[in-house]
Specification:
alpha/beta, Macrophage Migration Inhibitory Factor, 8 strands
C-alpha cells in the first residue's frame, strides 16, 4: 500500500525521472518488504516560483539549488523504525544517484495511516486483512 508523493523542481530529463521512479520503487519494495504491485509513486513537478526555501522562492534566488526534493510516504501503520531508516537512506541515495542532488536538501516524511483509515477496492485495509 505504500503511496509516495515526490515533490521536485521542474527541469529534469524524462530519463532521469523514469530512473528515479524505478529506483525508489525498488527501495520501497526492499526496505518495507512491500509487493511491487502495491507501490504507488506520484512525481509532482513544481516551477521554481512555487518553491520557497528560507522565505524566498527558488525563482528569485541565484544559485538557489534544487530546493528539495521532498518525499511524503503514506504507509499503513506498523512499519518498524529500522524499515523506515532503510527507506530514508535508500530513497536519498536514489535521488543523489539519478538526479545528482546531494543528500543535504532532501526531506523524507512518513505518514502512518491506521488500517481503518485507508481504503482499497472499496474496502478498508483492515477489512482486507492488512
Amino acid at each position: 500500500m505504500p503511496n509516495l508523493n515526490i515533490y521536485l523542481v521542474e527541469g529534469f530529463r524524462d530519463e532521469q525521472k523514469a530512473r528515479l521512479l524505478r529506483r525508489v520503487s525498488e527501495v520501497v519494495e526492499t526496505s518495507l518488504a512491500a509487493p511491487m504491485a502495491s507501490i504507488r509513486i506520484f512525481l509532482i513537478e513544481l516551477p521554481k516560483a512555487h518553491i520557497c526555501v528560507g522565505g524566498e522562492t527558488l525563482a528569485t534566488v541565484a544559485d538557489a539549488g534544487p530546493g528539495g526534493p521532498t518525499v511524503h510516504a503514506f504507509l499503513i501503520a506498523g512499519r518498524s523504525p529500522a524499515q523506515k531508516e532503510a527507506m530514508i537512506a535508500g530513497v536519498t541515495e536514489a535521488i543523489e544517484e539519478t538526479l545528482g542532488i546531494p543528500a543535504e536538501p532532501v526531506r523524507i516524511m512518513f505518514f502512518d495511516i491506521a488500517n481503518t483509515d485507508f481504503g482499497m477496492r472499496g474496502l478498508t485495509a483492515k477489512s482486507l486483512g492488512r
